[in-house]
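Fill in residues.
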């Protein structure tokens, strides 16, 4: 075996580094592109079923709710729920159809009557225990024929996959890692 001088890198290692860089770059571009698809999925479901009420649990910056406000004209009420409302989401409070609620997911769910919401989108804490609690708190709030949905149905180290599949054996999985079920 021939020893390479210390200052030179192996072409294999250099190529591996380049491949890793390009895969990381490509993933970041696909992630940015795909992050907008959840809006389209929710928009399609809401408009297809003429849903009137929507709750987003885990508002973050409010982009999903803002998109739906613009694209789903039949929506009458949008509830944006987050344990800590970010400054970027506060602009939503100026729209008549949107109500912002700064509480934990489970505490906020107590404000809603059972069977009162058409669609709930869970995108808050992704740890197993939290997702399980969110499902238990929000599923009763969805009316029959409505949808309980969520984001980030990926990465087994997160709790989304486990919590969802423990409750339902056949959730519908869509692009951008969106899952949903129709309440029967």
């Amino acid at each position: 075996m021939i020893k390479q001088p210390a200052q030179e890198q192996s072409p294999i290692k250099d190529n591996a580094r380049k491949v890793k860089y390009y895969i990381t770059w490509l993933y970041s571009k696909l992630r940015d592109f795909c992050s907008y698809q959840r809006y389209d999925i929710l928009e399609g479901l809401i408009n297809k079923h003429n849903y009137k009420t929507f709750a987003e649990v885990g508002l973050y910056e409010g982009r999903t709710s803002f998109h739906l406000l613009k694209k789903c004209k039949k929506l009458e009420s949008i509830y944006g729920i987050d344990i800590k409302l970010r400054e970027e989401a506060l602009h939503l409070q100026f729209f008549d159809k949107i109500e912002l609620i700064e509480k934990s997911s489970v505490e906020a769910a107590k404000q809603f009557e059972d069977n009162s919401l058409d669609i709930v989108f869970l995108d808050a804490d992704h740890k197993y225990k939290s997702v399980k609690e969110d499902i238990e708190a929000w599923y009763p709030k969805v009316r029959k024929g409505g949808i309980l949905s969520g984001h980030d149905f990926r990465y087994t180290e997160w709790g989304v996959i486990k919590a969802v599949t423990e409750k339902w054996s056949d959730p519908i999985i869509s692009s951008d890692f969106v899952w949903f079920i129709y309440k029967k």
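The chain is about 40% helix and 20% strand.
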